Amino acid sequence: MALANIFSKEVTQQIVDRINKLSPSTQALWGKMNVDQMLAHCSVTYEMVYENNHHKPNAFTKLLLKLFVKNIVISETPYKKSSQTAPAFIIVGQREFEAEKKRLIDYILKTQELGQSHFENKESHSFGILDSTGWNNMFYKHLDHHLSQFGV
Q1: Is 52 helix (H, G, I), strand (E, B) or coil?
Q2: Would the pLDDT of 1 be above 80?
Q3: Which pairs count as long-range contacts for 9-18, CB under 8 Å and 24+ apart, including other chains?
Q4: % of the chain beyond a pLDDT of 90
Q5: Do the beta carbons of residue 148 and residue 38 sit within 8 Å?
Q6: Which residue from 29, 2, 12 is spatially nearest to 108, judged by alpha carbons?
Q7: Dmax of the chain from CA atoms?
Q8: What pTM did the predictor assign?
Q9: For residues 36-51, average pLDDT
Q10: Cβ neighbours for 138, distance < 8 A, ≥ 6 positions apart
Q11: How many whole angstroms from its chain centre is CA 121?
Q12: Residue 128 has what DSSP assignment?
């Protein structure tokens, strides 16, 4: 079964609506992150696409990521609760909730506006060239996993 299309306005709006249901006091149903850390964590995927503030993995690490992690990230199979995360995605300390919420929503809207064709055969920071389905699955599945973690 295909995942929802994050590039569609309807699905993007559904995700934004879910994010807008969060508050600084929203508690996680599982895991260690608080809500502002989760929002910052979800933005890391987009930082790797739009910003130049994460080191690209070396050739050996990239090969390992492609062999052992890529399919977990871009497949339609949901993530397991409390699964391990990459070091770049670990958020420590408090973040400002409203700023992190706005930043994540802005990234999601930018992605939808650029559209599916922009991501067709675009190179991923960690996994090499992905088709738009792989990008969609990576974006949508990650957001859905963490919004579900916080009950929205």
Answers
A1: coil
A2: no
A3: 9/112, 11/140, 12/108, 12/109, 12/111, 12/112, 15/108, 15/140, 15/143, 15/144, 15/147, 16/105, 16/108, 16/109, 18/147, 18/152
A4: 87
A5: no
A6: 12
A7: 41
A8: 0.94
A9: 97
A10: 45, 73, 74, 124, 130
A11: 18
A12: E
- Residues 136, 138, 143: CA angle, nearest 5 degrees: 95
pLDDT above 80: residue 19: yes
**3-state class of 129 per DSSP?**
strand
The two three-digit tokens of residue 62, written as one number: 């990239």
Q: Position of tokens 């895991």?
A: 31
- DSSP letters, 66-125, are HHHTHHHHHSSSPPPTT----GGG---S---HHHHHHHHHHHHHHHHHH-HHHHTTEEET
Residue 10 CA: distances (Å) to CA of 6, 7, 37, 55 = 8, 9, 26, 33
Q: Please write the tens of the pLDDT for every residue from 84-127.
A: 888 889 999 999 999 999 999 999 999 999 999 999 999 999 99
Amino acid at site 44 = V
Return phi, psi of residue 63, to 5°. -60, -45
Q: What is the rounded distance in angstroms from the CA atom of residue 28 to the CA atom of residue 45?
A: 20
Q: What is the pLDDT of residue 84?
A: 86
